[in-house]
Amino acid sequence: MMLVSTPSSDFKTISNSLQQLNGVETLVYETSDPETIEVFTEVGYAGSFTMEGADSAGIVHKITSVIANHGLSLENLDTSRQGAPFGGTTLFSMSGIITAQNPLASNFDPEAVREELQVLGDEMNCDIGLHDIESKDIVDGAA
Predict the structure, then answer these.
(1) Rounded-to-integer distance, Cα 71 and Cα 113, Å
(2) Rounded distance between C-alpha atoms, residue 118 and residue 136, angstroms
(3) Is the pLDDT of residue 141 over 50?
(4) pLDDT for 116-133, tens place per residue?
(5) Sheet (strand 43-54) strand order
(6) Which of 33, 79, 32 is nearest to 55 (CA)?
(7) Can you tell me the distance from the alpha carbon of 86 to that of 45, in angstroms, rounded to the nearest whole number?
(8) How confident is the model at residue 108 (pLDDT cuts 50, 70, 90)?
(9) What is the rounded CA–CA span in Å between residue 38 and residue 86?
(10) Which of these, 15, 18, 104, 142, could form a disulfide with 108 (CB 3.0-4.6 Å)?
């Protein structure tokens, strides 16, 4: 979140310029006293994801990059590692809650996120799942 102070005469120009930025979602509020406005964001999409497979370098980065590229935020992320009972491989698991705030981008599609995570899972030989949850079910970052 960013607070910008500008003369009132420049508000419309700056607001329009911010709305035109590619890859950045903006919400603009005009106020004469920033202490008097309360901004509440509303969750437009919430999902719970899981990943299980062999540990490898960059696995968290690859998955979270897909999430970020779709304009989603991580609300909660848990990871763990454990030795496989046979074979000497380290198993990695990851789970979390992802959200997108309203207003959702016009091209936001949870199915596209699921498909991209599935393709990534196939490439990394691991299982990645994403299912939609109700935003009311998010309690302190856990569903």
Answers:
(1) 10
(2) 26
(3) no
(4) 999 999 999 999 999 999
(5) 73-83, 90-101, 43-54, 126-132
(6) 79
(7) 40
(8) very high
(9) 55
(10) 104
Residue 4 CA, chain-centre distance (Å), reads 25
Joined together, the tokens standing for residue 50 give: 């899981």
Q: What is the pLDDT of residue 143?
A: 47
Note the maximum CA span of the chain.
Answer: 69
Q: Which of 101, 48, 95, 42 is nearest to 71 (CA)?
A: 101
3-state secondary structure the chain: CCCCCCCHHHHHHHHHHHHCCCCCCCCCCCCCCHHHCCCCCCEEEEEEEEEEEECCCCHHHHHHHHHHHCCCEEEEEEEEEEECCCCCCEEEEEEEEEEEECCCCCCCCHHHHHHHHHHHHHHHCEEEEEEECCHHHCECCEC
Residue-wise over 89-101: b if at least 16 C-beta within 10 A, else e? eebbbbbbbbbbe
Asked whether the beta carbons of 76 and 141 are under 8 A apart, the reply is yes
What per-residue confidence (pLDDT) applies to 89? 86
What CA–CA distance (Å, rounded) separates 34 from 14? Answer: 17
Whether the per-residue pLDDT at 37 is higher than 80: the answer is: no
pLDDT at 42: 86
